[in-house]
Amino acid sequence: MSARLVHDRVRVRVPATSANLGPGFDSLGLALEIWDEVDVRAVAGPTTVTVRGEGAGTVGEGEDHLVVRAVRAGLEAAGAPQAGLDLVCDNRIPHGRGLGSSAAAVVAGLVAARGLLGPSSPLDDASLLALATELEGHPDNAAPALLGGATVAWVGDDGPHAERVPVASDLFPTVLVPENRLLTRRARAVLPDVVPHADAARTLARAALLVLALGGRPDLLLPATQDWLHQDYRAAVMPETLALVRALRRRGHPAVVSGAGPTVLVLGRLDDATRSTLAAQGWRVGEPGVARAGAAVLPA
């Protein structure tokens, strides 16, 4: 497989994502209407990266930048020539908060590579998901970032796969973002290697129920988001997050840890008083909506 650069500039936008959604550990994900935009130009000179917004001044600004690495991975997979890259990243997805910022960067770079190659690009969605999973380690965030909406992802003997699942039009998520960050590897490090069979079995049942609930059974969202597999184990590294999840659930809100945390995702809206109280406690409260479309090249 070989290709060539057809365009010298593309602009891509990619949504934030929330993985797991409670019981769907490393498999379920939801795209949210918080968008990063990346302008990519192929140039004759060295690679430069300008980051505006989230992550400015804290992420790499050269060949080690994650978007650059993803563009290069995409071009290499297509057999296309490499070039210098001039990137401008307008970031709105919070970093280190469990909203898929790294998956968004990877998917943005891969979609940009496909855009540079033009309509004859050999990089279809399946190829991009495989490359994103290789760079990310698992497809739970990459799938909704690429496809939009809610997705279920899995890895078979032939690589990663993902399918969209229905999401009701009246589902309006709320995100509660704390000031502190948490590295994904730290959040995963506290998870046990073995869990009780009963916990795995009942979590599996709730994950299946969640697919039904997302499609239009809001009355099932609270029981469907119950998890015994990973969230409670993470209380050691994000006690405020788990305390808030539990408090909201006691009040009937389907609250979960967003991805590896520490953001809290509620699959529904909160009343004004609760929103005001949480904002006063330092939580950034947002209602981003479900991103029904995934990453895309914007019109020139």
TrEMBL record:
<keyword id="KW-0547">Nucleotide-binding</keyword>
<keyword id="KW-0067">ATP-binding</keyword>
<dbReference type="InterPro" id="IPR036554">
    <property type="entry name" value="GHMP_kinase_C_sf"/>
</dbReference>
<keyword id="KW-0418">Kinase</keyword>
<dbReference type="InterPro" id="IPR006204">
    <property type="entry name" value="GHMP_kinase_N_dom"/>
</dbReference>
<feature type="domain" description="GHMP kinase N-terminal">
    <location>
        <begin position="66"/>
        <end position="149"/>
    </location>
</feature>
<dbReference type="InterPro" id="IPR014721">
    <property type="entry name" value="Ribsml_uS5_D2-typ_fold_subgr"/>
</dbReference>
<dbReference type="GO" id="GO:0004413">
    <property type="term" value="F:homoserine kinase activity"/>
</dbReference>
<feature type="binding site">
    <location>
        <begin position="94"/>
        <end position="104"/>
    </location>
    <ligand>
        <name>ATP</name>
    </ligand>
</feature>
<dbReference type="Pfam" id="PF00288">
    <property type="entry name" value="GHMP_kinases_N"/>
</dbReference>
<protein>
    <recommendedName>
        <fullName>Homoserine kinase</fullName>
        <ecNumber>2.7.1.39</ecNumber>
    </recommendedName>
</protein>
<dbReference type="Pfam" id="PF08544">
    <property type="entry name" value="GHMP_kinases_C"/>
</dbReference>
<comment type="pathway">
    <text>Amino-acid biosynthesis; L-threonine biosynthesis; L-threonine from L-aspartate: step 4/5.</text>
</comment>
<keyword id="KW-0808">Transferase</keyword>
<dbReference type="InterPro" id="IPR000870">
    <property type="entry name" value="Homoserine_kinase"/>
</dbReference>
<comment type="similarity">
    <text>Belongs to the GHMP kinase family. Homoserine kinase subfamily.</text>
</comment>
<dbReference type="InterPro" id="IPR006203">
    <property type="entry name" value="GHMP_knse_ATP-bd_CS"/>
</dbReference>
<feature type="domain" description="GHMP kinase C-terminal">
    <location>
        <begin position="226"/>
        <end position="273"/>
    </location>
</feature>
<dbReference type="InterPro" id="IPR020568">
    <property type="entry name" value="Ribosomal_Su5_D2-typ_SF"/>
</dbReference>
<comment type="function">
    <text>Catalyzes the ATP-dependent phosphorylation of L-homoserine to L-homoserine phosphate.</text>
</comment>
<keyword id="KW-0963">Cytoplasm</keyword>
<keyword id="KW-0028">Amino-acid biosynthesis</keyword>
<keyword id="KW-0791">Threonine biosynthesis</keyword>
<dbReference type="InterPro" id="IPR013750">
    <property type="entry name" value="GHMP_kinase_C_dom"/>
</dbReference>
